[in-house]
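Reminder to self: tokens first, then the designed residues, so the page reads top to bottom the way the pipeline ran.
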């Protein structure tokens, strides 16, 4: 399965809820949908990251692929940029961390220039929303439904970057 198929499931959910949320006047209920969307998108990110790392390891060696698959069975939201840079990518070699940082900075500059949005901030915002919602039952009060939905596309670029650099 391509890692991008995980994104499609989250996108389908967002498209489905857009119509529903636009008709909701209760801010508390809207806040719940922000939590549901952020949880759905982070789940897609987690599955995609696992898929990228697994496929990379599998191409190196079948046993290594099996090891990585077992290692990443439950990543449970531990996919911040810091987690990727300090815990996940270094397991494959420091050269991949350097590559990730370099390519992500290039992607960040290009995306900001073209779309006026930060890849890194968008990705982080979704993770913070998910974490707050899952662990506290609420979402940050300064985030809107529209903002969290707009963060999905640029946030996906972090995983795209990971996929791009995880090659021999």
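Designed residues (168 positions):
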């Amino acid at each position: 399965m391509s890692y991008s198929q995980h994104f499609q499931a989250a996108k389908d959910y967002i498209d489905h809820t857009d119509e529903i949320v636009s008709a909701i006047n209760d801010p508390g209920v809207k806040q719940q949908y922000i939590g549901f969307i952020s949880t759905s998108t982070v789940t897609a990110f987690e599955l995609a990251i696992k898929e990228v790392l697994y496929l990379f390891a599998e191409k190196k060696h079948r046993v290594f692929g099996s090891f990585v698959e077992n290692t990443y069975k439950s990543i449970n939201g531990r996919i911040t940029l810091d987690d990727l840079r300090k815990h996940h990518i270094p397991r494959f070699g420091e050269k991949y961390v350097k590559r990730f940082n370099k390519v992500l900075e290039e992607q960040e500059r290009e995306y900001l220039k073209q779309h006026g949005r930060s890849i890194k901030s968008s990705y982080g915002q979704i993770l913070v929303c998910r974490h707050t919602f899952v662990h506290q039952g609420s979402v940050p009060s300064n985030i809107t439904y529209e903002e969290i939905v707009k963060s999905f596309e640029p946030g996906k670029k972090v995983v795209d970057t990971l996929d791009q650099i995880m090659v021999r």
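Residues 4-165 form one domain.
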